[in-house]
Amino acid sequence: MTLRAAARPAPRPIALTCGEPSGIGPEIAAKARAILGANLPFFWIGDPRHLPPGTPWQEIAGPAGAAKVTPGTLPVLRHDFPAAAVPGRPDPANAPAVVAVISRAVGLMQAGEAAAVTTAPISKKALKDGAGFAVPGHTEYLAALAGVDRVVMMLACPDLRVVPVTIHIPLAEVPATLTPALLEETIRITRHGLTESFGLAAPRIAVAGLNPHAGEGGTMGAEEQRIIAPVLDRLRAEGMAIAGPLPADTMFHPAARAGYDVAVCMYHDQALIPIKTLDFAGGVNVTLGLPFVRTSPDHGTAFDIAGRGLADPSSLVAALRMAEDMARARGLA
């Protein structure tokens, strides 16, 4: 008697939200499908009217249907919008549907139907104008949907991962915003995320100073001695592999990068300048601290080139690939 091996279930696909339909999101979604084909299962949630003319697409009834769509065709979980999408000119009437698509993607993950979510760029102004969007941005909305109070933004590419402790605030406000509690929480969430979603059992964390030369022993600023060093000493005593506070100007050359798995920086540009210099097109925005995997391309809606066929899908492709890798590390894909 011959026993037939049980069929392996198809991997759960990644949910790709449409983002702002008047931006480059629909275009790069179609291009990403053409590049990835069947090698990475994902489906797009949005209104097929917003896809570039001539895009091959097929409607699916649910995420499981994505596996049955031919490689050159974009699987679409249809979500009708009230208005057409004019490239470069967001319509406030579409804003509530943009928000609903994000919520729908999270619901599919929470129901176990999707392995991860990758989000296309949104226009916060359009959402505020048309939907009264009350949260600061995409990440905060996802945190609210997940019931999480604090999340961490990480930017990643093959050569570097960076985490800014303070993000979208004026530089003059950074010293007052940078507290021991904020720094410690950021490092703990970062370490847990690298362990849970990147398979690093003991992540090596490099922490930048705030001031030039990491304060030069207090002669160029006291934040390193007063705030940063005590937190790092306390976490090192727990067994964490942490270096710092380090001068930021010597942290990002190749030999330095080989010594750590993530660089924790004190403010936005300190973190984003090096990664965008190394890999401007392929950087990925990862949200750590959520109970699910979320990635996004590291760029905006690009209204100035929307609808012209010029959009580069590299960052979206990298975001989808990273979402799949993270989902596998967590046993979700």
UniProtKB/TrEMBL annotation:
It catalyses: 4-(phosphooxy)-L-threonine + NAD(+) = 3-amino-2-oxopropyl phosphate + CO2 + NADH. Substrate binds at residues 138-139, 276, 285, 294. Binds 1 divalent metal cation per subunit. Can use ions such as Zn(2+), Mg(2+) or Co(2+). Its EC number is 1.1.1.262. Pathway: Cofactor biosynthesis; pyridoxine 5'-phosphate biosynthesis; pyridoxine 5'-phosphate from D-erythrose 4-phosphate: step 4/5. NCBIfam families: pdxA, PRK05312.1. This is 4-hydroxythreonine-4-phosphate dehydrogenase. It comes from Albidovulum sediminis.
